[in-house]
Amino acid sequence: MKKTLVLGATDNPARYAYRAVHQLKNHGHEVVPVGIRKGSVAGLEIRNDRPAAEAVDTVTLYVGPQNQPAWYDYILDLNPKRIIFNPGTENPELEELAHQRGIKTEEACTLVMLSVGQY
């Protein structure tokens, strides 16, 4: 299964990032929830400290492009195989930086990908 870092994780059940953590876990993926507020989701602590994570397959973004620059180095230094830009998180600058490092990017919805078996 694909180790996935959810950037923008939240304990708010009305948010898509909350649903994504639950669905990723339900599909058997190892999930690292990272957000700006402390809390927990799907029984996992939301990390606020930019944790070092080994062998991250996917970073799925739930942070708007205006807030992403502060995360660029962290995301890229994880060296994931891919970054998923969920609706509203599209960012050509970060996509280009990722491509320069050989990281695949996708503008897609993690929830839809999981529901149709294309994750």
If you had to describe this structure to a student in words, what would you say it looks like?
The structure is a single chain. The protein is an alpha/beta fold. It has a single domain, classed as NAD(P)-binding Rossmann-like Domain (Rossmann fold, 3-Layer(aba) Sandwich). 27% of the residues lie in helices and 20% in strands. The chain contains four helices and seven strands. The strands form two sheets. A five-stranded parallel sheet has the order 2-1-5-6-7, with helices on both faces. The longest helix has 11 residues, at 16-26. Residues 2-114 form the CoA-binding domain. It holds the Pfam family CoA_binding_2. It comes from Hymenobacter rigui.
Topology at a glance:
Elements: E1 4-7, H1 16-26, E2 31-34, E3 40-41, E4 44-45, E5 58-61, H2 72-77, E6 82-85, H3 92-100, E7 104-107, H4 110-115
Parallel strand pairs: 1-2, 1-5, 5-6, 6-7
Antiparallel strand pairs: 3-4
